[in-house]
Every structure is written in C-alpha cells, then in structure tokens.
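pipeline/complex-builder :: batch 7 item 3
reading input block
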Amino acid sequence: MDRHFFEELNSLKSKLLEMGTTAEEMLNITVKALKDNNTALFDTIDQDEFKLNRLQVEIDEFCMKLIALHQPTAIDLRFLLGVIKINSELERIGDHTTNIRETIARILKQKQPGTSIDMTVMAELACNMFKESLYAFINMDTDKAKSILFRDDQVDQLRHKAINELVESMTKDPAKADTSVSMLLIANNIEKIADHATNIAEDVIFVAQGKDVRHHFEDPLIKNQ
Amino acid sequence: MDRHFFEELNSLKSKLLEMGTTAEEMLNITVKALKDNNTALFDTIDQDEFKLNRLQVEIDEFCMKLIALHQPTAIDLRFLLGVIKINSELERIGDHTTNIRETIARILKQKQPGTSIDMTVMAELACNMFKESLYAFINMDTDKAKSILFRDDQVDQLRHKAINELVESMTKDPAKADTSVSMLLIANNIEKIADHATNIAEDVIFVAQGKDVRHHFEDPLIKNQ
C-alpha cells in the first residue's frame, strides 16, 4: 500500500472515531438525564447531532474518493465499505439519542407524573454495547465484536419486560398513560441503539475477517471462531 | 464500459429489484391485515423475510466483487455504493414489516379489544412512498425521488396524531391499554418504513446526480432542481 493511501486511511479512521465519540457523548448525556433528570447538557446534544450529520456526509464522500482514486481490493476495500456502513449506524444512533432527549424534555416540561419503570439498566447496557463496538472497530478486535452480538437479546428482553410493566401500570393508573407512553418510546429508542451497536460489531467482523455474520451469528461455527 | 460489466450491473439491478418486490409483497400483506384482520398470508411474510436476508448478503457480496474487479468510478461507483445502501434499507423495511406482522398476530391471538384508531391511512401512505422509491430507483427518476422526501413529514404527523389518540383512549378506557400499546408499536414501525423509503429516495438522487441531499433536503436549491 502506498504511503499516501495509508495516511488517508488513518485520517478516515480518525474522522469516524470523532463521529463515534460524538455519538458516545450524546448517549452519555442522555443516560445521565434518564438517571437523575439532569438536562443541563441537553443543548450539547443538539449541537452534536448537527456535527454528526455533517461528519456523515464528509465521511461518505471521503470513502468514495478513496475507492475511486486508489481502487482498493481485499481488506482495504472491506475497510472502506465497512466505514460507509458504520457511518450510517452512528448517524442513526445520534437520531435515536435525539429522540430520547426530546421525550425526556417533554416529560419534564409537561410535569408528567413519574412511573416506577426504570430504564437506566437497559440504557446502560445499550450504551456499553455501543462503546465496546467502537473499541472493537478501533482495534479490529473480533472477539470483542462477537461478544456484543450475543448481548442484543438481553436488551430485547429488558424492552419486553418494560413494555409489560408499562401496560400493567397504565391499566392500574390511567392518569399515567402519557408518561407510560413516553417511557415506551424511550425503551424503543434504546433497543434500536443496541441494534445499531450490534450492526457495528457485525461490520467489524466483516472488515477483519471477510465474513458476513448477519442473519446467522447464532451459528455455533461462528460462535466458536 | 465493457459489455461484461454492463451485464453484471443489470444482473445486480435485477437482484435488488427482486429484493424490493419481496419487501413490497410483505408490506402489501401487512397493510391488508391491518385493514381487515386477514392473516391468511402471514406465513408468506416469514418466508419472504428469510429470502430478504439471503438476498441482502448476496447483493453486498456481488457489489464488492464488482468494485474489486472493475474498479468503477463516477456514476458506476455511485450506483454500486447506492445499491449497498438501498440493500440495507430494504432489509430493514422487511424487519419492520415482520414486527407489524407479529404485533397483529398477538392482538388477534390474545383477542385484545379493538380500538377506534385506524392505522390504514398511515400504512398506505408509507407503502406508497416505498413503492415509488423503488420506481424512482428502477427508472433513476430524481423528480419522483424528490417528491417522496417531502411526504415523510405527513407520516410523522399521522404518527403523532395516532399517539395522542392512543393516550386519550388509554386514559378513558384502561382495559384497552394492551391493544393501544400494540397499535403504538405498529405506528412506530410504519413511520420507520416511511423513513427507509425516504432514505432510498435520497440514495436515488445521490446515484443519479452525485448530490448528497441528506440533512438538507428542505434547502430550496435542492427543492427546485
């Protein structure tokens, strides 16, 4: 690989990492707000979302330029296609985080009565999956990536549990229907963030090993590789 | 462009179209079930989802092979990168359709009491956006693609209206909380399908014109182009 191309790949990786850490900051602020209703940093989320959108367009253009100019094959091509995919996942994580931020702001503004349903365990689980998927990408750590795939089910189960509890709470106390629906929307967005973290982990395995593990990662052959 | 590459691009386009029509069939069955509780074809949705997953992997591999072998630039490269993106949108439309199918099946199985909230207008709107985004892709029709971008807001508004009505219904009649939550989940999935149709429309504009209209499609310069 020529030096110039190598440097450009590194510069692309840094840009994607900047996007990842921006999404991570958004997510940290949101999880904190879920925990203690602290919305002091909510304006940061809006600025960060704007930054994510700008970076998404820049990264896609950068990838396309590198493919057209350097005509990469094998792992370099997989890396560039992987970056395009991860780029899209990161932008969507930003969207879901913004949705959660808006829902929390609405709950607080309308002074909706609280529910006893706690979303922080689920949110922290999804947040950790996302952080580890970024780590797996930076270090091309496929073991770490595989460990993330199997945690998606836990988030799904927590979401199902939360939905059942919310339905029960609404049935018993219809005055809390509004808050319960808000919490349900938050649960859905958290679950989607875990989905996107899982997709990033799948992309890391694809880039590193050339293996497409989507739709059959429960296969024991993949599990043990 | 050499003849062999031209034929391969056509073959790729057919494969993506097969994926699109499969997702369309799934969506048609779901909208019909929402309208008249007809679940006769629900098994088809499961088979179709399996097919979508298989096609997604095949199409990504095909694109990567073509980029590595033919080292395309300009519109050919944009077409291949666009196909990779649309491929992912189609698979996710399949996922959301499967979620709706499962929710309808659960409502009917549990014999949940009905609500007066009608989702069919919203579902048909999203379904038409998707069909037109496929048409825009096949014909590289950027005018059609642009017309889709501006309809996403309508679906968002219908979803907001549905959520407000569902909260009101739950507050008045808590026994219907379960059905109302199910309908809310359906509304969320329909809105996501409209989002993915919008993404496909944006990808069509990117492939045809080399313009990235994400995050600023409301720009009058784009609107009037």
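note: The interface with chain B takes residues 53-54, 56-57, 60-61, 64, 67-68, 71, 73-74, 77-78, 81, 84-85, 88, 163, 166-167, 170-172, 174-175, 177-178, 180-181, 184-185, 188, 212, 214-215 of chain A (CB under 8 Å).
queue -> next item
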